[in-house]
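B., you asked whether I could sanity-check this one before it goes into the benchmark set. Here's the sequence:
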Amino acid sequence: MKALIALTAILAASSAALPTQTLAGDYTLGALTIRQPWSRPAQAGMNGAGFFTVVNAGKTPVTLRSVDTPAAAKAEIHQSSMANGVMSMRRLDNGVVIPAGGQIAFAPGGYHLMLIGLKAAQAQGQKVPVTLIFDSGRKMRVDLAVQLAAPSEPAAPAGGRLH
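And here's what the prediction gave me:
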């Protein structure tokens, strides 16, 4: 029995350092959760985009510094914004800070990943691997589900809320 308890503790400690997939399409790494990562279909040679929500349940802010993917020639973190009726987009070389106990949505018209120079077409139903790199040096590999529109949030249970 003691050996089983020790083995369980070792497995729990070693898995804490690895990203795990939780609910359908969600990934966790320590206090961070990446919710519903997705991308739109795109042609080879064109640019793609990645969207998701980053939730930081920790007590300190975390910065998403960069992104890497084998699916494109280059990947960057961008932000789109509207000013005086003009949409603009800029690369965020310093990354995005996810506040302690907070979350940041990467969504069309706001923060997003740019997948520049896709090496192959992204067809509906496929998965696009990306690696998110945080300020601590930790890396989290997630798969962007290629679909036509953003995934819908799961319905809350009757009489309750999702946590």
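One thing to flag: The chain has one domain: 19-144. Otherwise nothing jumped out at me.
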